[in-house]
Design brief:
Elements lengths: L2 H10 L1 H4 L7 H7 L10 E5 L5 H9 L5 E5 L3 H8 L6 E4 L6 H7 L7 E4 L8 H13 L6 E6 L5 H8 L3 E5 L6 E7 L1
Parallel strand pairs: 1-2, 1-4, 2-3, 4-5
Antiparallel strand pairs: 5-7, 6-7
Bound molecules: S-adenosylmethionine.
Protein name: Phospholipid N-methyltransferase
InterPro entries: KsgA/Erm (IPR001737), SAM-dependent_MTases_sf (IPR029063)
GO molecular function, one term: methyltransferase activity
């Protein structure tokens, strides 16, 4: 998908996309920082959009690894399917259903979770349910990395994970944050 098409999707569904731009390269790199790609075999991505961060994950993922990428928009899921990588499982579903898709690939837990879900734009109850599901299904020692354009929902991650480290990513339009948590 082009930047222009993503903009159109954002304008059509701003209530769920939360933005009209997708993550730039520096933000994608910050989103997957702290992931140990030498040992990771199961990575879960929440709010994957057209797969802009997913592609960075796939570039570094072990040949036997899997990425489960959650996205609610059918059009954006079709863009991800077009990537055509057998390690990618496109979950056209809401992100609180992590357990179902881990079961499908026979994984006990996710090694790491990357999220760009726009929690500030979603009902608080849904947001809390997704973050709780992410925490429950992450292995001990795994990272939860959250991309955001505001820090409004930082308390969600503090409640689930305790300590949250925040990094500002200025080389993105608009400048963004990545919040890093560890289980
Ligand atoms: C800010 S965009 C991020 C897209 C892409 N990952 C990026 O970094 O540019 C957030 C995405 O989360 C998706 N989304 C919103 N609510 C969701 C939910 N409950 N479950 C899964 N995806 C959701 C939206 O459709 C949107 O594509």
């Amino acid at each position: 998908m082009s930047t222009f098409s993503f903009l159109l999707e954002g304008l059509r569904n701003i209530g769920t996309t939360g933005t009209i731009t997708r993550s730039g390269t520096a933000l994608c790199q910050a989103a997957i920082d702290r992931i140990d790609f030498t040992s990771a075999r199961t990575i879960v991505e929440l709010g994957a959009g057209d797969g802009v961060i997913t592609r960075h994950i796939l570039d570094r993922l072990h040949p036997d690894g899997k990425v489960i990428a959650f996205e609610v928009s059918e059009d954006l899921c079709n863009d991800m399917r077009a990537i055509g990588d057998p390690r990618l499982v496109v979950a056209q579903d809401s992100a609180e259903n992590i357990r179902t898709y881990l079961n499908q690939i026979g994984a006990d837990k996710a090694d790491h979770i990357v999220s760009a879900i726009p929690f500030a734009a979603l009902p608080a109850e849904l947001g809390e349910r997704i973050v709780t599901a992410a925490h429950e299904n992450l292995r001990k020692g795994g990272c939860y990395n959250q991309v955001h354009y505001s820090l409004k929902t930082k308390a969600y991650y503090q409640r689930a994970f305790g300590k949250v480290e925040v990094r500002r990513v200025y080389r993105n339009l608009p400048p963004a944050w990545v919040l890093y948590c560890r289980k």
